[in-house]
Each structure stands twice: as structure tokens, then as C-alpha cells.
Amino acid sequence: MLIAEFLGTFFLVAIGIGSTTGWTDYSPTLTQIAFTFGLVVATLAQITDSGRPTDDQSCRTLL
Q1: Which of 36, 40, 45, 54 is the most exposed place for a label (fewest CB within 10 A)?
Q2: What DSSP element (H or E) covers 28?
Q3: How distant, in Å, are the alpha carbons of 2, 24, 35, 46 from that of 20?
């Protein structure tokens, strides 16, 4: 479990911080950086999904 936590944090930080790196003639906007962080979180969640349906869905829990 500790290895998985480390790898998830590593990928989130490495790709997210990589999106903030500016080149000599280009600097990313705040929207592009936020979109990259969102894509990283969504991709990691999709990769680690077990494929089984769960019973603890948020929309049913709130209702």
C-alpha cells in the first residue's frame, strides 16, 4: 500500500509540475496547468479502477 501511495504521488507531482515548466518563448497558462492536473488525476483513477461496480456511489449516498 505504501508503494502505491508513493507511485501515485510521484506521477501526480512529476506530470503536474512538468506542466508548469516554461520554455524560453512559451509559458503555460493557469488553465492549461489546472487541466493537466485534472487529467493526471482522472487518468490515475481510471488506471487503478478494478472494473467492479461498487455500492458506495456518491449520487445514491447523498439521496
Answers
A1: 54
A2: none
A3: 27, 13, 11, 23
Residue 40 has which C-alpha cell? 493526471
Question: pTM of the predicted model, to two decimals?
Answer: 0.64
* Residue 52: C-alpha distances to residues 9, 42, 49, 61, 62 (Å): 24, 17, 8, 18, 21
Q: Mind listing the pLDDT tens digit for each residue in 10-61?
A: 988 888 888 888 777 888 889 988 998 999 888 888 887 766 666 655 555 5
**Whole-angstrom distance, CA of residue 54 vs CA of residue 41:** 19
Tracing cell 447523498 back to the chain, one arrives at 62
Question: What residue ranges do the domains of the chain occupy?
Answer: 1-50
Q: Supply the pLDDT for residue 58.
A: 58
